[in-house]
């Protein structure tokens, strides 16, 4: 369905709707990340589409001057107008007034939150490049379903292998994340599974994937994970795998980047 733009001289084309859909899904997206998702080069084509969407108020961009000097890309997010435009399309009933109201925070969230969101986006893009049939669900997707914990993972991913669906909770852990939030995340996952929160979805728990920003982060988070599991005293064992962002970015043909 084509929607008139603000000046009514052109229409919102499918390529622009696709960009709005992606930005909605991931909440923030850079030009390179969006281009990768769309199978495009991050050149003038997607740049022009973004500029049109910016001009007509469907999206805005965030980039602090100090971050620009560090080479950080601009992060695009949907405006309430952009969200209402998507909400008016068929099969978009999940974009409610509450979702649109909460989007006003996107203009003021911290740069560290944006950086982390883009990092998670880049991680899922890298995994999808290696596993083309990988399905990725972000927090905005997960909120449509009642079977996820209150403390949502950064992403939920599903991979079909030989008629079996493998499911994973994915969390990207930055270097500067304190130990306590990670410890609490593990224990809350454990409480969720032990309490039967996943029983309606499957009789098998999803594996937990933790991606550290660096090798140092991975070693630290492995210590924290072990301590949290010891405290949880689970009746059933959780499968937990760790790796690093560089390993995901440089995943080889064998794909052996995960440590149990």
Please give a structural write-up.
This protein has 11 helices and 9 strands. It is an alpha/beta fold and 260 residues long. The chain has a 5-stranded mixed beta sheet with strand order 5-6-7-8-9. Strand 8 (207-212), helix 10 and strand 9 form a beta-alpha-beta unit. The protein starts with a strand and ends in an 11-residue tail after the last helix.
The arrangement of helices and strands along the chain is: EEHHHEHEHHHEHEEHEHEH
- The spatial strand order of the largest sheet comes to 5-6-7-8-9
- pLDDT < 50 runs, ≥5 residues: 1-10
Distance between the termini: 47 Å
Overall 3D form: globular
Please, how many helices?
11
Rg calc? 19 Å
Q: Mind describing the biggest β-sheet?
A: 5 strands, mixed
Global mean pLDDT: 87
Portion in strands: 15-25%
Number of strands: 9
Helix-strand category: alpha/beta
Helix content: 40-55%
């Amino acid at each position: 369905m084509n929607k008139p733009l603000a000046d009514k001289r052109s229409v919102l084309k499918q390529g622009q709707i696709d960009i709005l859909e992606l930005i909605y899904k991931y909440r923030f997206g850079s030009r390179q990340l969006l281009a990768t998702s769309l199978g495009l080069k991050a050149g003038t084509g997607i740049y022009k589409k973004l500029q049109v969407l910016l001009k007509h108020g469907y999206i805005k961009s965030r980039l602090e001057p100090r971050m620009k000097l560090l080479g950080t890309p601009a992060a695009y997010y949907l405006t309430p107008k952009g969200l209402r435009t998507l909400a008016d399309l068929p099969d978009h009933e999940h974009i409610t007034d509450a979702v649109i109201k909460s989007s006003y925070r996107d203009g003021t969230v911290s740069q560290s939150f944006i950086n982390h969101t883009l990092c998670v986006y880049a991680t899922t893009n890298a995994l999808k490049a290696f596993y083309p049939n990988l399905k990725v669900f972000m927090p905005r997707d997960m909120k449509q379903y009642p079977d996820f914990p209150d403390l949502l993972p950064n992403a939920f991913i599903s991979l079909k292998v030989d008629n079996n669906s493998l499911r994973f909770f994915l969390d990207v852990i930055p270097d500067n994340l304190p130990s306590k939030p990670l410890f609490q995340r593990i224990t809350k996952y454990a409480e969720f599974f032990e309490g039967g929160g996943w029983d309606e979805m499957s009789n098998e728990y999803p594996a937990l994937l933790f991606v550290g920003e660096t090798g140092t982060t991975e070693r630290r988070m492995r210590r924290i994970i072990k301590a949290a599991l010891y405290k949880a005293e689970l009746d059933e064992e959780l499968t937990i795998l760790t790796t690093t962002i560089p390993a995901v970015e440089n995943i080889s043909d064998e794909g052996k980047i995960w440590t149990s």
